[in-house]
Amino acid sequence: MRNTEPVSTIMSTNIIALNRTDELETAELLFKRHNIRHIPVVKEGVVIGMLSYTDLLRISFADAVDETETEIEALVYNMFTIDQVMAKNVVTVNSNATIKEVAQILAQKEFHALPVVDNGSIVGIVTTTDLINYLLKQL
Predict the structure, then answer these.
(1) Total domains in the fold of the chain
(2) In this protein, which residues make up the domain named CBS (predicted)?
(3) DSSP secondary structure code for residue 93 in this structure
């Protein structure tokens, strides 16, 4: 395992993102459709927040009701905006950051994903799952 390998080798580049004006229902659909747990919130390509599936679960009954019972979720989601639910003080890393540096950040913080930003624009996202899969390949 090389200590200097850049995070760009393990990050996801297929970026699913939200705008602060999107609906929380849209966020839930993206989480479920793409089987992801974190979505960066962007404004003109610049990361302004991060929404996690856990954030939605805290305010809704997303996993507690049948998929056909959308009225309850819609009512709860209409009470909040993405701006109110997303994490705003987002830590980002550059694509040249080492995997070790990213692992250290994620180990010290209470979140599980980092947007990867180059020249002010998002170019990827790296998650704890990406790190675990990387480590498993090394063993």
Answers:
(1) 1
(2) 11-67, 86-139
(3) B
